[in-house]
Structures are given as structure tokens and as C-alpha cells.
Amino acid sequence: MPVTVVDINCDMGEAFGQWRLSETDDASLMELISSANIAAGFHAGDPNLMDATVRLATQHGVGIGVHPGYRDLQGFGRRKINGTSDEIINDIVYQIGALREFARRHGANLQHVKPHGALYMELAADEALSRSFIKLMRTVAPNAFVFCMGMSQTYRTAIEAGHPVIREFYADRDYDRSGSIVFTRHVGKLDPAAIADKVVRACLEGKVRTVDGVDIDIDFESICFHSDTPGCLEIAGNMRSALVANGIRIAPVSEVSAQQAYAIRGSK
């Protein structure tokens, strides 16, 4: 079934003090997205930046999400940090709480939780850790969406638990045959037009080409791109324009989720 309404999410606030990773300021990107995944101090971010990014999101009507990662500023959260399940879950609790209070300060709610980098990939593969994570979500943020890949343990566990969940399509990452993104720490310059074509095809045909040249089916409710990808502003602009030109509306995840549920009911 073609996607007619979709969320666009992007990782935001990924800096620390005077250090900046992205070549593009978050304010420019906020105009092109509907959901922001905001770093909460472990892989990037600090209290002043979290406050500023939440304020920007509320000003632009963008859904606020926390982007918890491993405590790894030097490696930008893209290295696995070994720890017990309790240690990892407690780090997530800490980051959810911090970002949620900044959202509350600005009169906003926490829309979603999207783990970052190596933590995202670990949760996708580790059933026990995913169960601990979703159990945590049911307790501390039962109404907040979890963002994850459709093929992940995270998604399967959320569905089993009846927790709100959003599947992502990665605009600026490659896929393997399993439907997982190919994890990378460094992304080079990409072709914005090619990315726009890839995204539109995924929406209209439900297909994506893998790294070894095979087409696979892909289902999703949100499109992700990264603010640290070189040329991210041009990528976002091209992608959004191509979606709109093909009759695909950009909307917050709450509306996307409601429309998907209606479509599923109507097809039965």
C-alpha cells in the first residue's frame, strides 16, 4: 500500500559546548522536518543546547523526541559500550528524564524515544535488552512512541507489549537483505537527487535497493536523515520537495500513526 502521509525525523542538538559536528544549524533543518531526535548529553548535547533545541522545536511545531545513546562523547555514541542490562537501561532513564524536563519547561510533551547509534543497533539485535527497554517505556513513558527499524527486536517487542511504535526508513543509509541499515561511523558526500528518488520509491512502491543490488520490501511511518551527513540541508530540501510533488504529505507521527491504523482497519 503506497504511503500517502509520512513523518520526517532528524537527529538534532548533536554538539557539545563550543564543539559543533554538523555543517548546518538546527534552525534551518527544523523548517523541513516534523520530528526531532534531541541528544541528551551522553553521545552529544549539553543542558544549554538541549534547552535551545527544544525551544526551536516548539517554535516550529516539531515533535520532540529524546535520542539516548551510550555514554561515549569521544566516539559520538557509535561504539558499543559494554555494561549490564540494568546499567544500560538506567542510562536511558537518565536521558529520557533530562530531555523531558526541558520539554516540560517549554510547555511541550515528549513525543518519542529513539535510541542513537550503537545503542540503537544493539537493541535491534538483542531480544533481552529490547524487552528491558520496552518494559521501561511502559513504566516511564507509556504514551511516547519508540522509533526503530521494522525488522528489529525492538519493533517486535513493542508490538507484543502494545507499546506505540514507529518504523523508520533511512534516507541516507544503505540497507542489507535483512532490511537492516548497514551501520557506519563515517558517511561521505551523497547525491541529494538520488536520495530523493530512493525515498519517493520507498513511499510509492514499498521497495528499497540493497547494497548488493537486490530490491526488498520496506514498511515504515517515518523517514530519517542525519544532521551530521555532509550536505544534509540540501538532502532534506530535495527529499521534502520530491515527497510533496508526488502527493505525499508530511505530518507528525501521531497523525501518521492514526492514518496507518485507519488504513489497516479499512483493508480488513
UniProtKB/TrEMBL annotation:
SUPFAM superfamilies cross-referenced by the UniProt entry: Glycoside hydrolase/deacetylase (SSF88713)
GO biological process, one term: carbohydrate metabolic process
InterPro entries: Glyco_hydro/deAcase_b/a-brl, LamB/YcsF/PxpA-like
The protein's name in its UniProt record: Lactam utilization protein LamB
